[in-house]
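Q: I'm building a small set of examples for a reading group on sequence design. Run inverse folding on the following structure and report the sequence directly after it, with nothing in between.
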């Protein structure tokens, strides 16, 4: 569960990373969606807990007993700010601890606007107070020796400050060299319902996102693909294994092929498959050409073919369908997506 939360967060950041030039030009806007702050905290814990432990650091959270259940704002940008600030704290701390504090959240009845007030404190290398005014400039770090030893571009704090300001907030830094750093982030968001509160309790036990679509009922898990034969066409062994394990968990019999040519050879020898998951980019013969050739063979043309690829933008999906594929599953593979597409086409 921690790996899933961490990877989904990081993939979202990669897919929607703000271009610094767009921020400078003001050509970006914040999303306004409902989100759970508890879930953001769970993601933060999933990303950094293991890293802090491996470095011998203590990661401590100080949280109020209750917070509003739902907020309205841009959760990805809030995650981006917190990931950067916590990442810096761990990066620049060689020994000791990092403490993440969320202050109690007051919600005025009339405006429903609340301030998320975070403090991230570390016992790391600290910063000379004379260098603090420069930290929010683009491509700036405390000094050149920091860049040489710890790496980084110096863009993170600049982007985070601009994002915070776009939320009517700001980021402040207090530090002394050799004595650690305290970073304060204040972000204004709207509360959906001031009377709906949720207990943080044992929040670090990772839970499914309450805002996410429900996964397939557990009653279906043992038999939904029972008796079905599936061909997975994929050139990377670990991806073959992941798809095979997921499909076999639901009762399917799985055969793998390393590329399009291999898949066609298997189908010519034994065409009795119910479903094909087809990667797009493969050596020798890619998935689009393999699909076209399968469709051109009358004894194979009825087979259900679902693309399984990281190429998930609209024109890539359109190219898959134009080649004769029935549907599309994006990588990294989501179990619920894989199963829902499979069962949808097997029913029809």
């Amino acid at each position: 569960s921690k790996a899933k939360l961490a990877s989904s967060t990081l993939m979202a950041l990669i897919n929607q990373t703000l271009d610094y030039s767009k921020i400078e030009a003001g050509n970006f806007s914040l999303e306004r969606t409902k989100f759970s702050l508890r879930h953001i905290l769970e993601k933060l814990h999933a990303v950094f807990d293991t890293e802090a432990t491996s470095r011998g650091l203590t990661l401590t959270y100080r949280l109020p007993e209750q917070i509003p259940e739902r907020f309205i704002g841009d959760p990805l940008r809030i995650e981006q700010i917190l990931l950067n600030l916590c990442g810096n704290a761990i990066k620049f701390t060689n020994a000791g601890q990092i403490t993440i504090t969320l202050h109690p959240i007051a919600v005025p009845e009339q405006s429903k606007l609340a301030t998320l007030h975070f403090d991230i404190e570390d016992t790391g290398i600290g910063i000379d107070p004379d260098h603090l005014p420069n930290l929010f400039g683009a491509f700036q770090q405390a000094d050149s020796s920091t860049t040489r030893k710890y790496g980084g571009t110096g863009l993170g704090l600049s982007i985070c400050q601009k994002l915070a300001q776009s939320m009517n907030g700001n980021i402040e830094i207090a530090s002394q060299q050799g004595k650690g750093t305290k970073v304060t982030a204040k972000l204004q968001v709207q509360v959906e319902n001031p009377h709906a509160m949720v207990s943080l309790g044992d929040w670090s036990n990772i839970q499914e996102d309450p805002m996410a679509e429900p996964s397939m009922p557990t009653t279906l898990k043992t038999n939904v693909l029972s008796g079905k034969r599936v061909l997975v066409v994929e050139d990377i062994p670990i991806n073959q294994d992941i798809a095979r394990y997921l499909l076999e968990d639901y009762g399917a019999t799985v055969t793998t092929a390393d590329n399009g040519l291999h898949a066609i050879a298997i189908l010519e020898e034994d065409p009795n498959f119910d479903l094909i998951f087809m990667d797009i980019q493969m050596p020798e013969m890619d998935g689009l050409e393999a699909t076209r050739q399968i469709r051109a063979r009358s004894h194979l043309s009825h087979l259900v073919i679902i693309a399984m690829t990281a190429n998930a933008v609209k024109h890539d999906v359109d190219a898959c369908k134009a080649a004769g594929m029935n549907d599309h599953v994006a990588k990294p593979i989501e179990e619920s997506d894989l199963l829902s597409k499979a069962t949808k086409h097997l029913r029809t």
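The two ends are 32 Å apart (CA to CA).
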